[in-house]
Amino acid sequence: MTESLRPELQALQQRLQRTLDEQRVEACERRHAAGYRTARENLNDLVDAGSFQEYGQLAVAAQRTRRDYFDLQTSTAGDGVITGTATINAARVGPRAARVAVVVNDYAVLAGTQGFFHHRKLDRICALAEKHHLPVVMYTEGGGGRPGDTDVLTHIAGLHVESFSAWARLSGTVPRIAVNNGYCFAGNAALFGCADFTIATRSSWIGMAGPAMIEGGGLGKVAATEIGPLDSQLKNGVVDLAADDEAQATALAQQLLGYFQGPVDDWSCVDQAPLRDLVPEDRRWAYPVRKVIETLADTGSFLELRRVYGRGIITGFMRLEGLPVALIANDCQQLGGAVDAESAEKAARFLQLCNAFGLPVVSLTDTPGFMVGPASEREAAVRRMSSLFIAGASLRVPVIAVFLRKGYGLGAMAMTGGSFVAPVYAAAWPTGEFGGMGLEGAVRLGYRKELEAIADETEREQLFEQLLAKLYEAGKATEAASFLEIDAVIDPVDTRLTVLHALRTAGVCPQRVEPADPEGQWTQ
């Protein structure tokens, strides 16, 4: 017969149970009625089963002087935030590489607001992440700062908390992924915006102030659903990835984190032969470059960030034979592939993150250069486009450049780390063409007098086409390679192999440690 538990152990178990969903029935029902999951349901879906170690589970809101303490243990469980460490993706990358810190804001506690002990828990987990080099996944739903913590008598405004600086200080040290569903205002939005990568569901509203603060500032009454809806935050680049719901957002967080956890053994790819025909024979026709990317990448491994922001340059991650790499690519279906101010700034930030976290970069280049003209300059083109050169010059990770077609002017140089000699390897497909500026513009500018001297429009167009063909022959990929301006011209079907060879040359192609290592570490 099993002996009964000692009273103090029974009391502990009962206290812990009051923080779980089974004892918080009304709060759980409200979440489910809204179509949302509870904080612990998101947590359990995110982390590997049995791996979570919680910090500060017994905290309650600092409101003992105004509310019943027993009630606080359930209604303000954890002071509105679950923090701890766990593993994610351990079955694929091994337990050591899978280590993470996790923060899940609990909207069922005082609308997810940030109280005194809430901040203490954030500070603690950020310090652990910094010391032990743990990536962080944070669910950010919540209403910002909380004014009702009456137990706190040692400060006035409460602005001497360290949570925001501690979270921001992790920038460039460990990958930080923010996931949001529902309302995310004020301090919660600041945490979301500070993250390296941001994921939000269709039911997300994200803003630096909620309705109460807006009204208090004399700016009128607005509905919470008018503040920072997802469509707006996608277009302005605040959100990297959109998800239909919390389940998909969690899956995206797991996939995104995986690129920073190292290689995987299970991979496959499609037949590479179709690459030979994806670029049209007519150089003036556009083509869907995402088909090129999806063919090159391991099956199902390509994940694009900020798809509707800075659309001229595609940014994202993929795997090649299980190896995670970063990708930038020109989209010739947007502005003919020209690099505009917005896409340049987007790509520059992306390269900075790749550099910080050690991911090699593959650049699929097809651009006529930087976008020019008065409208472009009104977008701060000089400053924003130049940021791409600064990011490229700062890269410590290798770049491999593959020119699919056009490689013209400063824009092409910016796509390859600032110079055609910056990449470990610079190769072109046979469709590649090069020049100091786009061929059409070069003909019109360089042969203006000759063209203007011909009165007949048909004859003038014939001369234009002749001069254009001459420049194309002089600048096609094989000629550029013969002058050593690029390293090689390759059969498109060999692109994956070419990139992997270049990575091995750079010494960054990892090899998994033999199974005798129980933690399955990987090395470079």
Task: Explain what this protein looks like in three dimensions.
With 524 residues, the chain is an alpha/beta fold. The chain has 3 domains: 26-258, 2-enoyl-CoA Hydratase, Chain A, domain 1 (Alpha-Beta Complex), CATH 3.90.226; 273-432 and 476-506, Alpha-Beta Complex (2-enoyl-CoA Hydratase, Chain A, domain 1); 438-475. The protein has 21 helices and 17 strands. The strands form 3 sheets. Strands 8, 9, 10, 11, 12, 13, 14 and 15 form an 8-stranded mixed beta sheet that branches. A 7-stranded mixed beta sheet has the order 1-2-3-4-5-6-7, sandwiched between helices. It starts with 6 loop residues before the first helix and ends with a strand.
Low-confidence runs of at least 5 consecutive residues: 511-524
Number of domains: 3
The value of Rg in angstroms is: 27 Å
| E-strand count | 17
Question: Any idea what the CATH architecture of the largest domain is?
Answer: Alpha-Beta Complex
Key features of this structure:
524 residues; alpha/beta; 2-enoyl-CoA Hydratase, Chain A, domain 1; 3 domains; eight-stranded mixed beta sheet; seven-stranded mixed beta sheet; 21 helices; 17 strands; 37% helix; elongated; disordered C terminus
Chain-wise SSE layout:
Elements: H1 7-17, H2 25-33, H3 39-46, E1 53-55, H4 69-75, E2 81-87, H5 90-93, E3 99-105, H6 116-132, E4 136-139, H7 163-169, E5 176-185, H8 187-194, E6 197-207, H9 211-216, H10 230-235, E7 241-243, H11 246-258, H12 289-296, E8 303-305, E9 313-320, E10 323-330, H13 341-356, E11 361-367, H14 374-377, H15 381-393, E12 399-408, H16 409-415, E13 425-428, E14 433-435, H17 439-446, H18 448-452, H19 457-475, H20 477-482, E15 488-489, H21 495-505, E16 511-512, E17 522-523
Parallel strand pairs: 3-4, 4-5, 5-6, 6-7, 10-11, 11-12, 12-13, 12-14, 13-15
Antiparallel strand pairs: 1-2, 2-3, 8-9, 9-10, 16-17
